[in-house]
Specification:
It contains nine helices and no strands. The chain is mainly α. The chain has two domains: 1-96, no CATH class; 122-258, no CATH class. The mean pLDDT is 92. It binds zinc ion (ZN).
């Protein structure tokens, strides 16, 4: 039964991933998410149902438009595959629960934020602000994923986490304004709202380590030059998704060391 549900959630994840691709393509250029319907950006041909089957259409068409053979971005495929795997993992971790729905929603949000930052070097206020409101409402009514029992309500915990996230990245942003932008600070506050105290520390610490290691490798291999800007949002996103999955395990392991 568990296998069946894992496959089901993987399929659901690929379908959600397909919608996330639409968000990543359209939100930064201010286009509506629903209109016009899916079409090829090269030949404008409207895509039919058989062109829109997640993962399989891309493989079947070998990554090209059916009508004009223009290449389809590889990111579309990897977001669908990635979301599918992620949803299966979230199901295996949380089981059929409200936490599963909440963590799947947040993971989707951070996939969109991280990839838009990777492609456009932008963290969009029009995503961060409304989602901060949504995260606050969720924390009032629904359990926060992976949260450890605390003496105060989850909403208070979300606000504490948000404040911690904001302050933790505000300091480096003030000291190194070239390396970190306001977008990163706002995103850190959102991460805090979503993950709460104390998991906000796990998410930001993971993000900073991940970003530091990858940036060093890119500089060492001369893929990036020293003055080139490397967006931090993708690392924060990856770290937050990892924290939604294993944050409390990491924290318990770390606290167990003392
Ligand atoms: Zn085309």
């Amino acid at each position: 039964m568990e296998i069946l549900f894992s496959i089901l959630f993987a399929l659901l994840g690929t379908a959600v991933g397909s919608f996330l691709n639409v968000c990543i393509d359209r939100l930064p250029i201010g286009k509506s998410l629903v209109y016009p319907p899916s079409h090829c950006d090269s030949c404008q041909h409207r895509l039919s149902v058989k062109d829109l089957v997640p993962v399989f259409s891309y493989l079947w068409l070998r990554g090209r438009c059916r009508y004009c053979r223009a290449p389809i971005s590889r990111r579309t495929f990897w977001v669908e595959v990635g979301s599918g795997l992620l949803f299966a993992c979230l199901y295996l971790y949380y089981g059929l629960s409200i936490e599963l729905a909440v963590s799947a929603f947040y993971s989707s949000l951070f996939i969109v934020l991280g990839l838009i930052d990777l492609e456009h070097k932008l963290i969009l206020n029009k995503i961060v602000y409304p989602m901060a409101g949504v995260a606050l409402i969720i924390s009032i009514f629904l359990p926060q994923p992976g949260i450890i029992s605390l003496p105060w309500p989850a909403a208070v915990n979300g606000v504490i986490g948000g404040a911690i996230g904001f302050i933790l990245l505000l300091i480096p942003a003030l000291i190194f304004p070239r390396g970190m932008g306001w977008g990163d600070v706002k995103m850190a506050a959102l991460i805090g709202l979503v993950s709460g105290f104390p998991l906000v520390f796990v998410a930001l610490f993971l993000g900073i380590v991940l970003g530091g290691v990858v940036a060093s490798i890119l500089l060492l291999l001369k893929i990036k030059r020293r003055k080139e800007y490397i967006p931090f949002g993708p690392f924060l996103s990856l770290a937050t998704i990892a924290t939604l999955l294993w944050g409390s395990d990491v924290l318990n392991w770390y606290l167990g060391l003392f």
